[in-house]
Amino acid sequence: MDPQSGLPRCYRHPDTETGIRCTRCEKPICPQCMVSASVGFQCPDCVRNGSGTGHAPDANRPRTLAGGRVETDGRLVTKILIGINLALFIAVQVLGDRFTDQLVMIGYAYNPLLGEVVGVADGEWYRLLTSAFLHQEIPHFLFNMIGLWVIGGIVEPELGRIRYTLLCLLSGLSGSALVYLVDAPNQASLGASGIVYGLIGSWVVLARRRRYDMRPVFLFVALSLLLTFTRPGISWEAHIGGLVGGALVTFAMVHAPRERRELVQYGVCGLVLLIDLGIVLARTAALT
């Protein structure tokens, strides 16, 4: 405690005075260390350990808006996704077109470099996801990574790691599925735009659920869609597919009733997955 002000100092930051204490262990915590709980705030140690009062860890652990666990690092999954994108971007620069052609989104086409028919319709379903983490050009890579970092930093703490991971994967898959359905079968597509636009759709739902002022949110979405449909070389299918998929998943995440929350949340995730798979199967049948 500071003898001059009478305020205690944060147990993790001794130079910072604070009037807030952890609701579990009552240690003084500063704004940087406070983790919002259902009642008051908790310190990172109690959140990490899930204890401090002798009760069951899961019962007392603070929860996100969607019912996930509150974590001290609210961007861990986002960092991992950016790391995957960075690793593949470096691989593309080093290994060149031959590497890219093996992972890019292609419906059905003959590849002269490989000397064979390739594409999702030929059984290479992995392209639906690998293409969502692949970039060739620096501006494209930087634009998507900035979007992932900024919007992901808003969405991930609201959903929790598991639900956020499902959101990103289903957004990317939904974007690729719509590309596969609409684009010419030999049209190549790549980039994390489906995931980023899925996060935008998620952000809209979360802002509405939190009763924020929706005007700046809708303005951002309108500008994003304007860029989607006016800039050449943009895969609008990936953007729209990701946007719709992300919004649907998040709506289920934050509006599911408490008594059967996980059943509804994961059930809707499964439904979105089935819709994507149905699109892929129908398009494959049409191409083959």
UniProtKB/TrEMBL annotation:
InterPro entries: Peptidase_S54_rhomboid_dom, Rhomboid-like_sf, Rhomboid_protease_S54. It is a multi-pass membrane protein. Coiled coil: none annotated. The chain crosses the membrane at residues 76-95, 138-155, 162-182, 188-205, 217-234, 240-256, 263-282. The keyword Membrane applies. The keyword Transmembrane applies. Belongs to the peptidase S54 family. This is Rhomboid family protein.
